[in-house]
Amino acid sequence: MDKIKIGIIGAGGYGGCGSIELFYRHPDAEIRALIDTQDVGKSISDLYPHLKGFCDLPLMAPDNPDCPEDFDAVFFATPDGVGQKEASSWFEKGVKIIDFSGDFRFNDPETYRGYADRIGRTQAHLSPELLPRSVYGLAELHRKEIANSDLVGNPGCFAVSCILGLSPAIDSKLIEPESIICDAKTGVSGAGKTPNPTFHYPARYESMNAYKISGHQHVYEIERELGILGGQEIKITFTPHVVPLTRGILTTIYARLKEGSDLERVKDAYRAFYRDDLFVRIFGSDEPLVSVNVRGSNFCNISLNVDERTGRLIVVSLIDNLMKGQAGSAVQNMNIMFGLEESSGLLHPGMYP
Amino acid sequence: MDKIKIGIIGAGGYGGCGSIELFYRHPDAEIRALIDTQDVGKSISDLYPHLKGFCDLPLMAPDNPDCPEDFDAVFFATPDGVGQKEASSWFEKGVKIIDFSGDFRFNDPETYRGYADRIGRTQAHLSPELLPRSVYGLAELHRKEIANSDLVGNPGCFAVSCILGLSPAIDSKLIEPESIICDAKTGVSGAGKTPNPTFHYPARYESMNAYKISGHQHVYEIERELGILGGQEIKITFTPHVVPLTRGILTTIYARLKEGSDLERVKDAYRAFYRDDLFVRIFGSDEPLVSVNVRGSNFCNISLNVDERTGRLIVVSLIDNLMKGQAGSAVQNMNIMFGLEESSGLLHPGMYP
Amino acid sequence: MDKIKIGIIGAGGYGGCGSIELFYRHPDAEIRALIDTQDVGKSISDLYPHLKGFCDLPLMAPDNPDCPEDFDAVFFATPDGVGQKEASSWFEKGVKIIDFSGDFRFNDPETYRGYADRIGRTQAHLSPELLPRSVYGLAELHRKEIANSDLVGNPGCFAVSCILGLSPAIDSKLIEPESIICDAKTGVSGAGKTPNPTFHYPARYESMNAYKISGHQHVYEIERELGILGGQEIKITFTPHVVPLTRGILTTIYARLKEGSDLERVKDAYRAFYRDDLFVRIFGSDEPLVSVNVRGSNFCNISLNVDERTGRLIVVSLIDNLMKGQAGSAVQNMNIMFGLEESSGLLHPGMYP
Amino acid sequence: MDKIKIGIIGAGGYGGCGSIELFYRHPDAEIRALIDTQDVGKSISDLYPHLKGFCDLPLMAPDNPDCPEDFDAVFFATPDGVGQKEASSWFEKGVKIIDFSGDFRFNDPETYRGYADRIGRTQAHLSPELLPRSVYGLAELHRKEIANSDLVGNPGCFAVSCILGLSPAIDSKLIEPESIICDAKTGVSGAGKTPNPTFHYPARYESMNAYKISGHQHVYEIERELGILGGQEIKITFTPHVVPLTRGILTTIYARLKEGSDLERVKDAYRAFYRDDLFVRIFGSDEPLVSVNVRGSNFCNISLNVDERTGRLIVVSLIDNLMKGQAGSAVQNMNIMFGLEESSGLLHPGMYP
User: Fold this and answer.
1) Cβ contacts of C181 on chain D, cutoff 8 Å
2) For A157-323, CATH number?
3) How many helices (H) and strands (E) does chain A have?
């Protein structure tokens, strides 16, 4: 079989870099072109010298006439607004699309509007006709729809962590939905590669902070996905924090157990819900979950605990924000969309220490 | 006036080191002797070479006959069990005591029993007669009792962060007590200077984790202090996390606002409660709180936020675990016990970057 | 072809962990047993949870009768003294040996004696008869001997960095041998996984230091290899430093250029010397070498510079101490010993950021 | 006595911040105004919130008519080019000047020209008439001239480290001047507070590199000062490196001992040379020098070692680049210029851990 031909738009960012690292090891897909509006003409291995000899493709401008066009799939590793402007022309040619932003995470214009409000985007969606064709790209919830779709909105990194940590409890109605609190801690790479004063090394090496308290845009997709799953409107409290490490999201999730729920029922529900999900691993309360153990891999590690004194479920959910939270999920989605083994190119333990 | 003469027992640990750094700048107190059971005979500046020329006292064994005894105050910078064994002989001589462990944080044997159970200590308290004389050493709650006491149980670092973050809301009955969740993130120094695999540099530099989920011993003193203040039993959920930095505790506190409470009332209550407390600073939702800003100082920075969508108060409480969470509070207590200016030796901004 | 069957002795350390990560991706070799004297009975994935599902073999005691013995090769990822005691019994059975310590880096007892003196080992070598059969395992210098050998002494991490950085200049007689100074900076993982006060996170996160000034044991093998190559005795000054990162050795090498040498001749010599060496990459003075670019990979990046004002060659040599400096070189040696593609299992770019 | 009134120009950078931290503790000087061209109108404690309550002065534009002018001394904590443009008007009013850049480190236009060439500055010095009035501000070499001067060029951070590490050996003619190599490792704060891709946290947390190999501008002042001291032209090789920590410069200095020199003579020479220098501390080979031990303090720690095998002196010189390497030296110079105790405001051990 010919290899699947991939184009990456926005290839120069961390999302592009992570995708390239994964495709190097993918047996059935290969990168044909790297497209970006910055650093045009440079080799990707000038930006990321560890790729030297592994991927030395140049960054091409989107309108470069020499740019290959015979892609089977295009990754939009771009910020909000790019995919909705440019995806439709690819889509019409039959190219499958995976978009890393919020542009295609909501499959109707009205729902998208609610998201756009949160990110301060006043413009209407530029490709509203595509929205009903799009699928929310979290394989553990939407594997079948992804398999049948040509347009996937890759989920937000915090959303992956929260949704995977909560879905079985919501699905099995084990917790009080209005009691949910998600306290997330992320490494700095989640903010991308553009330097800013907050992430300047001397300002960050010994500092942590909360930000966007009760106002982060990922709340919107978390509540929507959990609401669909639970069959009722769900509102959560979500507080993101930045801590001085590079890769990893650890989300501590609190929710009141319903009458009759206990740790055993919770464990059973999680194991059953994820029984076919290779990349989700369930741990008990007595096993320590340390974020470095998912660094560089596509796994989500989940530990289940109950605070007997207060009747609360406490879930700790761990991912690498650049892998299961971004490029890893994207490749997993691509595998599903093309009927490949879902884990193809993704079965790696990461690196320690 | 003669300077207050201080002895530090357990001087070789981080609590001792932090105290020495503070006393160097203290106008009215001076260290007379450093006592420890480890590294006996070494100079403290061999252990902590930055102190060379500032404090070169030797570490003396507790039973060294040459050890000075004419202390006005003794700091027990020791783990649980030491103070309760050794404090009484000093106490009887009229020496004022500040103990860094849980030994004197509870002023009756029965309450202490509850704490001892949590730390797996089966023995009864060794100086039960002293317990009624002891005061919980959080100046912002117990300034007057501390001023009149000769025996202070310095609070746990997490407890300082949680109690200061919650007291005004409890005192003014603005929140539902059964809804309180404290999600704490601490730097590594909170675990002390003894190396272990978890805090080995390669294991920690890029890793975070939750631990003692719903089982940390500081919960006990938090619930007790809040319960006394609120006039009712209070049970909280508390989850500590370790993140890869050295100094700082950031606790994110969640609680449901009572009917009629709002951000303005909350702010008023906090400002009023802490109007005489130099070391507590209240910030609004729009001001970023970054942990490095309290590093090396005795301040507790608190930001107040309300999640309107879910009706929750979200308090972010920041301290340096080695200062306001340990040695800083100890010196503050000593100042109060001796009738000195409460901030004496403590008015320093820390260091940046 | 059947896969090569590997046993790893001392599997629980960083050297074992790194080897396991590499073998997971190796097409022609597989691990049959993990042997250690510590943590016996535990699964390797209990020690290193990122390996869960990738390698869950138990750690077996060396004398466990159930331990498989049908190895084609054994890695001694053990400290000095273990291989020389235990290797001969394997060697006699025809098992190929790669030892990570200094035990087999010197192929006669007298030379070994010089090394043993430096590490304070008074005992004579326990398998002197094996020494003439051993080869120094730096493929770029001894590829042919390694191919014909059944016993390889894997080089020290600092030695890899220094020898690769100097060999072409020595070989082509471009520098004054008595003028060589190697100033090495290493990450903390070089000291292994056993916690100690120096590498406790709070002691290290913001600290660097020189150590073993002019007394590090790797000097011995560096001088020996360079001496053989240069056909004369060579004495260097070597100072190791520890800096607060986990993986990487950056060695800055200074030497006076001989009359008539210049940057162009140096570049030509290095390119010629390494023309068949996939894992050595030569860079000019204008290309920045950053250590993270070799993190997790088996490459040695070398930049060549001349200080015209003083007539000195300045070579910057970069490796990942756990890869080209340890497990990566070991697998590279194994590939050569078994006639496999030298880069088999090793062609990975590492991970960024 | 009235306090000395200080104005700081360029107050918003790390040099300004460090000076403010020091003046807060200075008994005889106080800051009257903070001047900058960026963040004008903001309080300094908005930029550096740890200063809240300690210094809340606004940043004023240089041309603000409300800006106080009755300074006794002005600190130019500004990059090259500012002081030479603006200092003369202050100087004429009798205000003492300390400039943090290279503008006044060379006391004649021709020497300055050599420096300007290295930093790519084509313009002639803007205040050549001031140059003969200026003094190189390293107190340990020029205490008397500083005491008699109104214009001091504060030394470069690397220069402080190298010059203090070499001066006694040069002065006593113990080493071969043409053999000197300085290998410097610096923390990231040396590059200032402006974010850039190289110092973005994810790019730096696990990376080190050499830069400006044989081309750093501080070489110029090092060679000049050592040349004056040694009475002959001296050319050194100097390579700076950045390592992932925030504060600290560790320079490892290599030089061939002259016939007849040995470690004892070296130690004697260093102790004699620095006998009146409170801020230089000499250590023997057996005492470990760790950079965190000078963090936040004005000390330079120096360890002396001889590599007997190669006849080289190896000096390790440690400073905090923001203290003895910048603001600390500036305050020390100010103390000397005003006839105060040289250590006034500077006697602090820093902070650990």
Assistant:
1) 181, 254, 312
2) 3.30.360.10
3) 10, 14
